[in-house]
Structures are given as structure tokens and as C-alpha cells.
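Pilot study result, target chain (237 residues):
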Amino acid sequence: MAVTSHKPSTFAQYKTLLLKDLQREFRTRDMLSSMAIYALLVLVVYGAALSQTGRQFDILQMSGGLLWALIVFTSLLGLNRSFGYEKEDGCLEGILLVPLDRSVVFLAKATSNLVFLLLVEIVVLPLFYFFFLTTTAPAPTWPMMLLPLFVGTVGIAGIGTLLSTITVNTRGKDVLLAVLFIPLVFPLLYACVSATTVVVAGGDIEGIFMNSVLLAAAYDLIMVLLSWVLYDFAVSA
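Predicted structure:
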């Protein structure tokens, strides 16, 4: 009797890889706890640095930049650790031996990174509001910052997944990832800071805010698709 092997569907492969990352992280909480603690420490440093500023200092105008600087540097910490387990345990080599599309590996890892970043932001945002916005009067439109936060986090997760794969086997990968990541993500960061500042401080919602969000979304579309296409070359190098 002939035995026919059944190859799992692309979605089944994606779900298996994604569940692997989620279950491991929710069991150990290494990445989430380190990112949350780091974000809290950065907020404390922000508070100490801004505690002696004069009354003329407008924290609302600075809030977008402060928040996104916090998100970017916290994301770098998480992205550096995203392939740590695969590298240490030889899991990545085992995955590459399986006959599956490399783009599925990218999509699963990018999705897990996105989930982890969003979970950390859920913790960080109330803390940021408590530290810096409770003594001021943010504009009524401030909840709209969730839109640029989500759009920006999608781009960070997609680009960061590709770059963390490229740098995982290099010496000094922490520094190299930052050197590659920050220049590439700068247009996205600029657009998201602009959109966040407008809704927190008050400004042109239909003009500056929408244009900035659309620019960030277009950047996400181009760069995430490019990362998806190039991932096979990056992971096989």
C-alpha cells in the first residue's frame, strides 16, 4: 500500500510557528518582563531629566517624541531577544531544514513580535500618561493616538524581524541591529511622532494627522512587503 504524505497547509504552518513563539514566551515571560522593566526605567529617567525644566516647557508638544523614543528603544531590546532562543537551542536550523516557505517563518515571527510589542505598549501607555500627562490638559483627541501607535508598531515588527534575522549570527548584534534599524525606521518614526503630537497637543486632525497616518501606513505596506520578499535570502545567508 502506497503511503501518501500530507503536507500541512501554509496557514497550518504559520499557526504552528506562531503558537510555538507565543506559548514559549507566555510560559517564560523573559522577553515581556525585560521589555516592561526597561520601559519603566526609561520613564523614570525621563522623569528625572524633565523634573527641573521651567514652566515654559510644553510637555504636550514633547509627548509624541518622548513616547516614540521609548517605544523604539524598548522594541530594540525585544527584537534582539526574538531569535535568541532559536539561536541558542539550534531551533532556527531545525526550522530551516523543514520544507516550508521561508515567508511563513517571517510572517509568524513578525506576528509574534507585533503581539509582544502591543502587550508592552498596553502597560507602558498608562504609565506614560500617569508620569507626564496627568498634570497637564491633553487635547480631547488624545485617544486617537492609538491609531498611529498600531500603524507604527506594525512597521517596527516587520522591519525589525528581518533585521534581527540578518544580525542574529553577527558579532555585536545588539549594536548592529540598532545601526541598521533606526535609519530604516526613521520615516515611519517621523510620521508617527507627528500624528501622535497632533492628537495629544491639539492640531490639524484632517490635515497633519491624517496625512501622517497615511504616510506611515504606506511605509508599512512597502517595507513589510519588501521584508517578506527578502526574508528567504536573509534567513538562508
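One observation from the pilot: Residues 29-49+57-236 form one domain. A full batch analysis is planned for the follow-on phase.
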